[in-house]
Fold these 2 entries.
Entry 1:
Amino acid sequence: MEFLSFDVTKKTLALRRAEVPVPAPNEVRVRVAYSGICGTDLHILDGTFPCKKEGLLTLGHEFSGTIDAVGSAVQNLKVGQKVVVDPNSGCNLCDYCRVGDYHFCDNGGINNTVGIFRDGGWSTHAIVPEGQVYLLPEGVGMAQAALTEPLSCLAHGWDKINPVNVGLNVLVLGAGIIGLLWSCLLHLHGLRKTVTVSEPQEKRRSAVKKLGLDYGVKSPAELKSGFDLVVDCSGSGPAMEAAVPLLNRGGRLCVFGVASPKAKLTIEPFQIYMKELKIVGVNINPFTFHKGIALLQAMADTYLNYDKLCIKTYSLSEYPKALEALKRGEISKAVFKLQ
């Protein structure tokens, strides 16, 4: 098999080859079809996001594919089935897991994620636990299915910020792939003329217009107050800090974008008191992967077009081009096409 190997100590990435691994009794081997590059992956590569502490790691936590081998104890999955993989799980033993918050689990959650702490989908083959494999519905393409994991995170965010009623004035910060997907999600739920997307880069502002959602698109300098909800998709402390004063009384800030652990946000407590502001954090996708698949089905034909979303596919060997295109802002997302 071919795979991209990240040397955690040296912070180097290289294309390697090895024998195809054999799944353990409770594991499934997936022949990967499409595997996305997430913003978190970029942070891991530059050493600003926690991952496996030593040795080699195959990144990739957003992938679809076909089962080509199952372990001896696997009963509910078969070779040949098209699947998507939830990279996250819990230990099922700690207090967090037992109340349904496995994303806070010290041994699971983000601390045991496939593609971050265990080898993932930047490979022709990936070994994953049976319980983290989901069948892909009929009629949904493999390329679109590679977006299931981020959609499942959006589903968790949607649950956290509801109610989001039609007519609410919403500001989306950032027009990278997550900002574009959030814009589509809001549109899917009926929000039309009352959504504004803020983005400093002209090329990304053009990407929002390309979606045809009829949303307002502005640079940060053009923003004025009057928002009921701000959804941050930028991970930028200064962007969030500038957006808080734009909130109406009773307004909410949803922190969805993954910021650097060293980023700071300054807020005046008096304004939180006077306006009764709320800050809502969203961390991965606890028990919402099935909702991500439902969103995949609901959004596929209308919203999840790679061209409209400015997503470009690459082979594994083209990883330097893919990473450079992302860093330069030429595309919203890069996805490895392996089949």
Note: The first strand starts at residue 2 and ends at 7.
Entry 2:
Amino acid sequence: MRNSAQPPPEPGIFQPAWDSLNDDLNTPEALGHVFSAIRKADVPSLTPEEARRMRNAFHFILAAFGILLPEEEQAEAPEDVRTLAEQRWQARQNRDWAEADRLRAEVTALGWTIKDRKDGYDLARN
């Protein structure tokens, strides 16, 4: 866990809450800013990257209050995504880099990311 004395890398809409916490630990004002930010957030219009950053900033601010939310459970990838990822792994084993890149792009287009390991790969939702 990060040191709560460090600001989040991208506080975004939670910046006023963070500033209030850093202003003599003004907890009531900080909580007000958190709720205002939640009301203002237009979540459906966010890109996956923006949503991830907002979620991380929200978790960081809550952790400053001592509230730790459980991590999201990772959904299992659908069969077609797992098949493409396995084909990509085989292409990498065969050193067919162009095919591996093509298959990675297909997996990405389906909303998943392949994270390579030395002995395999992991699939994560975008």
Note: Residues 13 and 37 are 6 Å apart (CA to CA).
